[in-house]
Write a structure and sequence with these properties.
Length: 348
Amino acid sequence: MQTIIVTGGAGYIGSHTIIELINQTTYDVISIDNFSNSTPQTFDRIETITGKRIRNLNVDICNLEALEFAISSVKSPILGIIHFAAFKAVGDSVLNPLSYYHNNLESLVNMLKICKLKNIQNFIFSSSCSVYGNVDQLPVTEETPFAPAESPYAHTKQIGEEILNDVVLSGAKMKVAALRYFNPIGAHATGLIGELPLGVPNNLIPFVTQAAAGIRSHLTVFGSDYPTPDGTCLRDYIHVVDLAEAHVLALKFLFGIKEPSYYDVFNIGTGNANSVKEVIDTFERVNKIKVPNVIGERRQGDIPTLWADVKKAKNILLWEAKLSLEQSLMDAWRWQSKLNTARVIEKI
Ligand code: NAD
Ligand code: WQD
């Protein structure tokens, strides 16, 4: 049995990817997660959905000694790593830059040391559309040069990609794909797993669902005077299950590459741009529930418009998004509706 290691497997995107790996491949999947932004119950829910119990190594990836010890317990050959584990809250990264540089970069470096130690050749990195910064050229292609990072978080993703490229350029026998996700939203169709923001959500969709559920009094739309058709920002919202599938196809693609050293980057989005107002209107229409909202000031660091050119992923990874914005927003609401409200409120 060959193993795929998924770091951050209890997290939002990692948990959905584990389900797709179980459904679409025969690999043994092992997670590494210290639950710094998730809970162990995710693995119970994955088991309910798939019938498989995922083994998790509960270790801080930044602790190399503990990581090496944990990995030494994996006896089957490790075919590849999908590295999700990182801190992701943009605003928090502005307030606590060192914890982001430490966690996001040290964890990446340590996973690469593990690759060297154990001769693991296939590696997928969670990058982000935020690497592009405030660009003029839209939609962004993988060739669009980076503008300066808008936050320490975005900077960790720019540096992460550079680290990977440098490692491959140094001649390491590694095949690496950095996937630049646009705005992941939605949840598994069962409503059993989804995004679990701890505290006040930063991202739009968790705020929309919590406002609709009455957990928040209202959603504030950050700015309605942008140079866009309805004055609110445009983004490329991608269903998390489509995103999860991109990882399975990216792994298969890497396995097929004959060159011993390879590095490339791929935009993972839908290629569509939707405004904040469109998201609210669509959510209300498909779920038949109101989202109390007010127009507020622009949020610092927000760029007016960002969406992906997705031709490269389609042509090379043979992947494209299939699920609609409507589906994403129905799935997000199902997840919110099924959440144990008491447990979530406890953490707010
Ligand atoms: P998440 O916070 O839900 O999941 C990350 C998981 O990693 C969590 O379960 C957390 O406990 C774990 N983790 C973090 N640091 C760790 C460490 N040092 N050791 C062990 N475990 C650790 O985040 P997500 O939304 O699933 O994002 C996954 C990846 O995708 C991240 O790298 C993120 O930066 C990237 N990304 C996310 C988005 C998004 O909007 N969700 C967009 C673009 C890129
Ligand atoms: C979307 C739109 C807000 C909340 C972030 C990261 C990016 C990537 C994806 C990790 C924007 C508006 C939001 C609210 C609002 N993540 N909004 N009211 O900022 O596009 O991207 O997540 O890599 O790096 O920056 O996502 O969900 O925060 O915002 O009006 O309460 O919703 O202004 O236009 P963003 P978001």
